[in-house]
Amino acid sequence: MMPKLTKAGFVCAARGCKNKQYLSRESFFLFPKDIVRARIWAIAGRREDLLENLESLHRSHRLCGAHFEAKAFLNDLRNRLQPEAVPTIVPSLEGPSSALQDHNYSFFIPDTFMLSHAVDIESEIGKV
Ligand SMILES: [Zn+2]
């Protein structure tokens, strides 16, 4: 599937985010090729609908820099991400507290939890 806005720039894949590449100061980042990390990006962006297509997200979907903390960037221009950066800042549709109660995951997952969680996913994939 080709992105629709090839000439105008890309829209951010995060649900509720209105940022467009050609209108925004934010840099846009392709989803990771690594499906374990792509899964984390999709969940953090509240795009559970993307979980079935993790292998192809890196070709078609981007998140804007607004979803990453300052420490996730390699430079002050905020146009280069750390290799292991995960999005932690996601616009909320119904308020952060209700979102956290309604879902099994948190947008603000501590680094240590995220790492152990990623390992769990990897070992699950290994079994299949
Ligand atoms: Zn965005």
Task: Lay out the secondary structure.
Elements: E1 28-30, H1 35-44, H2 57-60, E2 62-64, H3 96-102, H4 111-127
Antiparallel strand pairs: 1-2
Bound molecules: zinc ion (ZN).
The molecules bound to the chains, other than polymers, are:
zinc ion
Overall shape: globular
- Kindly give the count of domains: 1
> How much of the sequence is in beta strands?
under 5%
Q: Mean pLDDT, as a whole number? A: 77
Stretches with pLDDT under 50, minimum 5 residues: 95-119
How many beta-strand elements?
A: 2
Kindly report the spatial arrangement of strands forming the biggest sheet. 1-2
Straight-line N-to-C gap: 27 Å
- What is the percent of helical residues? 25-40%
Radius of gyration over all CA atoms, rounded: 15 Å
Largest β sheet strand count, sense and barrel closure: 2 strands, antiparallel
Going by helix content, strand content and strand pairing, the class is mainly alpha
How would you spell out the order of helices and strands?
EHHEHH
Put simply, the count of helices is 4
Describe the protein in words.
The chain is mainly α. The chain has one domain (28-127). The protein contains 4 helices and 2 strands; from the N terminus they run E-H-H-E-H-H. Strands 1-2 form a two-stranded antiparallel sheet. The longest helix is centred in the last third of the chain and has 17 residues, at 111-127. The radius of gyration is 15 Å and the shape is globular. The two termini are 27 Å apart. Bound molecules: zinc ion. The site of zinc ion (ZN) has 8 residues, from strand 2. This is Thap domain-containing.
